[in-house]
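#lab-general

N.A. 3:47 PM
ok so I finally got the sequence cleaned up, no stray characters, all 93 residues accounted for. can someone with queue access submit it? mine expired

B.Y. 3:52 PM
send it over

N.A. 3:53 PM
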Amino acid sequence: MINSDAYWDGRFEGDWESLSGPAQSRFFARIAIGNLPRWLLEQLQRQSLTLCDWGCAQGDGTDVLSSYMDPARITGIDFSSIAIGQAANRYPA
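B.Y. 4:20 PM
back already:
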């Protein structure tokens, strides 16, 4: 079943890389940043605001977001323990 734990764990263990999942995550993170109002992006950079990347997969989009603000104020969340493990290996910070 799509969007089940088993489905996504299988994708992250299987064909996520070969189907350009990391590149897609980076692409959509850049689209999100490009569509944020300028004032919000400035506030993210200047204030102690935090940001959550909900459904972060392997953390590639979260990594893109971290180039726009303090990485310590960004959290990636995903229900796939496989993806979170892979994200922790790729991006230990």
